[in-house]
Amino acid sequence: MTETIDKLTKVQPVVMKQLQAIFEKNRTGHAYIFDGAKGTGKKDVAMFFVKLCACLNVSKNVPCETCRNCKRIESGNFPNLLQIEPDGQFIKIDQIRDLISGMTRTGFEDGRKFYIIYHADRLNNSSANTLLKFLEEPEGEVTAILLTEAYHSILPTIQSRCQHIKFSNVSRETLMEQLQGQGISFSMASTVSHVTNDIDTAILLANDEQFAHVRKTVLKLVEAVKKNIHEALFLVYEDWIPSLKEKSEIEQALDLLLFAYRDIVAVKADLKSVLVYPDMLANFKDIALHSSYEQLSNQMQAILQARQNLQRNMNRTLMMEQLMLNLQEGYTFV
């Protein structure tokens, strides 16, 4: 857990400092909402906070990891901690009733009791109202931790009874470090860290053959557009259309295409930011040299227009033909 704590302190420095200050000042509240996107460490931070409050040998606001309580929390056998997740689509009223029954029964050890509710935004009306009554009148020292990726979907009356702890998105630099630590190349890590902020999703994408194929196709398309319309259309017919069947796949591919042209603009402007496609630097320098800012802007607008046409269910072949014409237009005049 020491390694995990170091990682959490790096990923969520403000939240960790906030929770450690709460503990240090002996101001542990009766309810918190941990609000943040997937992959921001909410679950690990929640377990850290429970450990911190229950540890028998805390040192410098960090749990010892070796006492009886720390070990039982780590193994999932701590009687003063209950956890619930949605049963299907929702968290149901019977789950909350069981939780409340568990929190009020005898058999708990001395000290503060905790419960963690995952995906708290998926409480339905009846379960939310039942929980609300318990939040208003908890028995003894009880702390609730509600985890959510959709804070505004939680009842305002529940929000008002909880301390809101906002988790920041993981920085791209941190995400790329984590990906490279998993053996993923710098170039692929750079690409997927633009697509998602969640480490697990990023790892899946980076190791997905279909995603790698789409990435390669997009970059080939950028090169083909520079050469001539015929090569670009050939690539669309032979590779793009057969590979991308679902609307979500085409949407993602258009995003990847837009990222490529943004990279070209960044190269032309000599910006020092990490490219989405660092492995294409030499190619993008050549394209940037032969492109005007106005042309690059028009090309990005054309991709955004194609994305809108996709949402309007325009014929996908016609949409891509039109996009290729719009992207290629002007190269002969530069």
From TrEMBL:
InterPro entries: DNA_pol_HolB, DNA_pol_III_delta_C, DNA_Rep/Repair_Clamp_Loader, P-loop_NTPase. Its EC number is 2.7.7.7. It comes from the Bacteria. Pfam families: DNA_pol3_delta2 (PF13177), DNApol3-delta_C (PF09115). GO terms for biological process: DNA-templated DNA replication. SUPFAM superfamilies: P-loop containing nucleoside triphosphate hydrolases. Residues 246-328 form the DNA polymerase III delta subunit C-terminal domain. It catalyses: DNA(n) + a 2'-deoxyribonucleoside 5'-triphosphate = DNA(n+1) + diphosphate. The keyword Ribonucleoprotein does not apply. GO terms for molecular function: 3'-5' exonuclease activity; DNA binding; DNA-directed DNA polymerase activity. One of its GO terms (cellular component) is DNA polymerase III complex. Keywords: DNA replication, DNA-directed DNA polymerase, Nucleotidyltransferase, Transferase. This is DNA polymerase III subunit delta'. It comes from Ureibacillus acetophenoni.
